[in-house]
C-alpha cells in the first residue's frame, strides 16, 4: 500500500490593485485545478500591533475597508475547501495613502477663500464710502 497526499493549490499572483486613505483593493488568480471544487478564500489583514481582521470570499478579489491612512498593512490569502483544509498562505504588503487636507488645498477651496476676501473688501469699501 501507499499513501498519497494531494496539495491544495494556493492563490496565485496576489496583487494590490488600488490603495486609498481608508481602503485597498486586492486580487489574485484562482488556483489551477479547482474549477469543479467547492472552495473559498480566507483573507487576513493587519497593521503592526493590531489583531488581524479575517474575512472570507468566494471571489478572487476583495476591497479591504476601514483602514487607517498612512499605515502599512500585511495581507495574506489562502484557499479553503469545504472540509476546512487550507492551502499555504500567499502574502503581500500595502501602505494606505496619508492624507493631510491642509497640505493639499483644492482649487475649489482656493476660489472660495478668494471670493470671501473679495466680498469682505467690497463690504469694507462700501462701509468706508458710506461713513466718510
Automatic annotation (TrEMBL):
Keyword annotations from UniProtKB, A to Z: Membrane, Repeat, Transmembrane, Transmembrane helix
* Classification via PANTHER family: TENASCIN
InterPro entries cross-referenced by the UniProt entry: ECM_Regulatory_Proteins (IPR050991), FN3_dom (IPR003961), FN3_sf (IPR036116), Ig-like_fold (IPR013783)
Q: Which residues cross the membrane?
A: 108-131
Pfam families cross-referenced by the UniProt entry: fn3 (PF00041)
**Superkingdom of source:** Eukaryota
Q: Which SUPFAM superfamilies match?
A: Fibronectin type III (SSF49265)
Q: Please indicate if the UniProt record lists Transmembrane as a keyword.
A: yes
- Residues annotated as domain Fibronectin type-III: 10-100
State what protein this is by name.
Fibronectin type-III domain-containing protein
Amino acid at each position: 500500500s501507499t499513501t498519497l497526499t494531494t496539495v491544495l493549490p494556493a492563490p496565485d499572483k496576489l496583487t494590490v490593485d488600488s490603495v486609498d486613505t481608508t481602503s485597498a483593493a486586492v486580487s489574485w488568480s484562482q488556483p489551477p485545478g479547482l474549477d469543479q471544487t467547492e472552495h473559498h478564500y480566507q483573507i487576513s489583514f493587519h497593521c503592526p500591533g493590531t489583531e488581524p481582521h479575517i474575512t472570507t470570499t468566494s471571489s478572487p478579489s476583495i476591497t479591504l475597508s476601514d483602514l487607517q491612512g498612512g499605515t502599512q498593512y500585511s495581507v495574506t490569502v489562502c484557499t479553503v475547501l469545504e472540509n476546512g483544509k487550507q492551502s499555504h498562505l500567499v502574502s503581500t504588503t500595502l501602505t494606505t495613502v496619508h492624507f493631510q487636507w491642509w497640505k493639499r488645498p483644492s482649487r475649489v477651496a482656493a476660489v472660495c477663500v478668494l471670493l470671501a476676501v473679495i466680498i469682505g473688501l467690497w463690504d469694507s469699501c462700501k462701509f468706508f464710502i458710506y461713513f466718510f
